[in-house]
Every structure is written in C-alpha cells, then in structure tokens.
What does this fold into?
Amino acid sequence: MIASMCLSVVLIIAGVASLSVVISSLGREFGATQSDLQWIVDAFAISLAALLLPMGPSETSSDVAA
It folds into this structure.
C-alpha cells in the first residue's frame, strides 16, 4: 500500500514537472498572466490527483495478513 501511495506522488510530481516545461510557451501563445499560469498548474495537479483517487489501495482486507 505504501508503494502505491509513493508511486502516485511520483506521478503527480512528474506530471506537474512536465507541465512546467511547456508553461512559458503556453503563456506566450495565449497571452496569459502569471496568475493565469498558476491557475493552469493548480488545475492540472488537482485533476491528476483526483483521477488517482479512484484507484484506491490495491490491497483488500482479505489480502492483508492479520
């Protein structure tokens, strides 16, 4: 369970880092302000995290040894 949680954190960080690479070109292309760009990054991180939530823990109560 810890491994799946760590993997999801790594995926979120990698996703936001990849967005950081293209954020300046997005700002130039659409004429976005610094505040607009921050909203884009926040919305991306929240939506990615929300998509990871339904995955839940990979172990069920019957899989866990007592």
In short: The chain has two helices and no strands. The longest helix spans residues 2-30. The two ends are 15 Å apart (CA to CA). The mean pLDDT is 79.
